[in-house]
Amino acid sequence: MHSLQFTAESSSNGVLERDFTVGGIPGVLWSPTSRTADRAPAILMAHGGGNHKKHPAMSGRAQRLVTGCGFHVAVIDAPGHGDRPRTAHDEAEIAELFRARAAGEPEGPIIVRYNDHLAQLAVPEYQAALDALQELPEIGTDGPVGFWGINMGTAIGVPFVAIEPRISAAVFGQHWPDVLAEKAKQITIPIEFDMQWDDEHISREEGLALFDAFASKEKSLHVNSGKHKELPRFEADSAVRFFARHLGAAVTAKA
Length: 255
Known about the structure:
Blueprint: E1 5-12, E2 15-22, E3 25-32, E4 42-46, H1 56-69, E5 72-76, H2 88-103, H3 108-133, E6 145-149, H4 152-163, E7 167-173, H5 181-184, E8 191-196, H6 204-213, E9 219-224, H7 234-247
Helix pairs in contact: 1-7, 3-4
Protein name: Alpha/beta hydrolase
Organism: Streptomyces kaempferi
GO molecular function: hydrolase activity
């Protein structure tokens, strides 16, 4: 079992940001600066394809969860992303994606295949990160944990949550059902799911098929008009309220 090693620390606007490594995997943990002896719930997040742990989408969501709910939020770089080197396999898949994009060919089959490969590597890394995070006194092993991942974050998150009983609620969205539907059938916790009605990559039928596959008794489908990259920012506020409702926190006006 690997322990968490903090490598850098800074704070601003009520948020403490700490870089860490666990088993050589780089990550970041955001926490309230006004920490007390009381433990608080934790949210694991996974970033989108081509991004990294401190992408504005990650830091922005973390800021909402920390200042609005008092939660701890952690992200690790996916394989081949952020501060992690790309392998020859990564380079080949990325080159094939760019080739298909330039030729006007469907990107979905390549992304589904590549994301499945990354998920097989990332799921045990997320389990190790959660083990290490729960060793921290401010998080502990007895508090609720949530998961938030869209796009590639869903590709990693669905198989992770399917085998991880410590996750109490999750936000997913914007991915194909091809590989994930069977794993989604194993998930019964509360789910919030985002999709774009005019997504140029993922058809409505595909998005609805993945949502339908979750076995959760409580699951909410959030559909907005717009293309793949036009997911409204207010869906982040909805996700914060979702986690507050299920993990136990009152959302302040800052959220």
